[in-house]
Amino acid sequence: MAKKIIMDVDTGTDDAVAIMLAALHRDLDLVAVTTVNGNVPLEQTTDNTLRVLEWIGRGDIPVYAGLNKQVARQDFPTPRASKRDSKVHMPILPLPAPTGKRQHKSAPQFLIEAFAADPGLTLVAVAPLSNIATAIALDSSFVENVSELMIMGGGITRSNMTASAEFNIWADPEAAAVVFSAGFKKITMVPLDATHQATISEDQCAEFRMLKTRAANAAAELIEFRINGYKTTTIGPVPDNAPVHDALCIAALVDQSVIETRRVNVVVETTGDYTVGCTVVDHRHLTKREPNCDVAFNADGKKFFEIMRSTFA
Ligand code: BDR
Ligand code: CA
User: Fold this and answer.
1) What residues of the chain score a pLDDT lower than 50?
2) What pTM was estimated for this model as a whole?
3) In Å, what is the CA distance from 121 to each residue of 47, 76, 161?
4) Nearest Cα to 169, choosing from 125, 211, 202?
5) Strands of the 148-152 sheet, one edge to the other
6) Ligand 1, closest atom to CA 126?
7) Does the beta carbon of 152 lie inside 6 Å of ligand 1?
8) Ligand 1: centre distance to CA 288 (Å)
9) Which range of residues forms the domain containing residue 307?
10) How far apart are CA 281 and CA 266, in angstroms?
């Protein structure tokens, strides 16, 4: 039976590829998508999400909009496309405007109700964790009702927003701190260290294009945009490649061997002068803090690409 999942996204070029992979893979049943402020403001993450789903003929999947700012901070601008990273994300994805609309219910309320009704659901959060933290604050049984939470975020030794923080965690650090310490039964964290081991190349985008499907064409266009963005920054160590962070989480749900995890403790820094949003990963068990998370230390790029290629075909 297909694994039922709900995705929390800030679409976003890599979110878009992740959504297509989740919506089209036969082993997954994408029940709904919730949106949050992140790569672009909430209105645009929601509009982009609707565009992606309709483009691949999955406009039947409901979209719920959530928080349009951080849970606590007044001083974080967040939307990323207007910042340094604008060469990797675009405000409006190059797909037709959606005909459908978002649902009326707010994302946190929907998440609370969906997980209370179906304990078999998996939550995949590939964006700032504002919606998840709000669901935790609103309903004391939410954490218990989520059997599995997969997060794209954080870094072990890598960062991409500040010298110490990855974007999804940095963009709402208080929310992330709440989520990691909430006591979820199973959290898998897919950090930058893993996503940068599974980058996609220009040649692989050409292979997508040869498939001549809507999803493959869109994936190629979005990933090529990312590759070009990385060419103009110093972030990408491998030439003509780019990570497609969020999609790696989906691939790992389909085939666990795509990532190699270790169970460790992770906490989120919220007060450091230089380290707000840093994920402190106790990879040598140097503290007495209980392990709370399976962290992906490695990823298999070949398997990742093959899962995408076969799905988009
Ligand atoms: C994460 O930040 C966002 O820009 C991407 O969509 C991804 O979820 C990578 O740091
Ligand atoms: Ca994202």
Assistant:
1) none
2) 0.96
3) 25, 32, 31
4) 125
5) 63-65, 28-35, 3-9, 122-125, 148-152, 187-190, 293-299, 259-264
6) 8
7) yes
8) 30
9) 3-312
10) 5
Query: Residue 148 belongs to a domain with what CATH number?
Result: 3.90.245.10
Q: Exposure pattern of 25-50 as b/e (b: 16+ CB <10 Å)?
A: beebebbbbbbbbbbbbbebbbbbbb
Number of domains in the chain: 1
- 11 Cα–ligand 2 center, Å: 6
Span 38-97, pLDDT tens digits: 999 999 999 999 999 999 999 999 999 999 999 999 877 666 655 555 688 788 999 999
Whose tokens are 């998370």? That residue is 293
Report whether 73 contacts 176 (CB < 8 A). no
Integer Cα distance of 285 and 296 in angstroms:
16
Percent with pLDDT over 70 in the chain:
96
CA angle 81, 112, 117 (to 5 degrees): 130
Supply 180's token pair: 């990691």
Cβ of residue 166 lying under 6 Å from some atom of ligand 1: yes
